[in-house]
Fold this sequence. Notes:
Blueprint: H1 2-14, E1 27-32, E2 35-41, H2 50-58, E3 66-69, H3 83-90, E4 94-97, H4 109-116, E5 120-123, H5 128-134, H6 136-144, E6 148-156, E7 160-162, H7 174-185, E8 189-193, H8 194-200, E9 217-221, H9 232-235, E10 241-245, H10 251-259, E11 263-266, H11 276-285, E12 290-294, H12 297-305, E13 311-317, E14 327-328, E15 344-351, E16 357-363
Parallel strand pairs: 3-4, 4-5, 6-12, 6-13, 8-9, 8-12, 9-10, 10-11
Antiparallel strand pairs: 1-2, 1-3, 7-14, 13-16, 15-16
Helix pairs in contact: 3-4
Amino acid sequence: MTAQYLEDALELARKGLGRVSPNPAVGCILALGEKVVGRGFHLYAQRKHAEIVALEEAGEAARGATMYVTLEPCAHEGRTTPCVDAIIAAGVAKVVAITEDPNPLVRGKGLERLRAAGIAVETFPELAGSAESLNLAFFHAMRTGRPLVTLKSALTLDGKIAAPEDNSGWITSERARAHVQELRHLSDAILTGIGTVLSDDPLMNDRTGRERSRPLLRIVVDSQLRLPAESKIVKSAAGDVLVVCSSVARADRRKELENAGAEVCALDGEGGRPDLRRIVALLAEREYRALLIEAGAKVNGAALDADVVDRIYFYYAPKILGGLQSLPVIAGRGRRRRADAILLRDVTLHRITREEFAVEAWVLRENS
Length: 368
């Protein structure tokens, strides 16, 4: 029954996706013999971890029970008191955690505290991959100290994202665009360039309609602060818009955007353009776990050139634009030799419709 209880706990954890950042999504099952006496999953807004929710549901039935949890119970003081203290006080006899907490500051300490209190402890490595994929951005951030950066684009089969003249309409289908919204829902921040904003005037929001632990931070890379105050992004700003410029941007434009509700930050890089590496570092400081880049060819190329992209998600439509003037998905400095091409690993194909598919792959980063 151990595997089944842990599978059930993983299913509970999935209910927290998008609703727990910067924390991980965690699920918990309490069983006394073969009877489930408590269930719980973490929601950031309720300030209770999955283990506490399950313990409260179980009440006295928790004494002598086995706890099945998707991630090691915490042993440190954060927004909540340590879960291990509540587990010990409740008289739980055994804890089966799929995997340890990846945070190097706390990893293994919760399990050690439980063992020291006389509670039997096991891990279940057979499901470790499932537990990690459920909290991909959290595990990545804990191991690297930076958010998971995904470069997303919609393109034709010949790798084009825009025609030289009329670009009305969509490249991909409505179903593909709905799939993108799922990526947005699992992201903490979304980044685009000023060119995309001036061309398309997008909202860049999460349109799933589902609860989030915090608003999707919308970031515009805009060296000279050309972002119109009447743009949809600025007009809808509610503490969720960050405009990144260079230090030479006009002070009056900065003041105008700040008065309209946007945060403006100068992060200088090479060539008078904002430094994408500094943007990623800023997000790490603010505990944003996942950044989605949805931009044009220049920003896409700059992100790859800056070595900040961890993963790509390219949506392909059954179309060909051709020509030398149609815009490719990646600009930037490019590679002069085939031997210097950016390499990808763990390539996965996702079927979107009968004719459309998405390619997910991890970038072999220079500084991985």
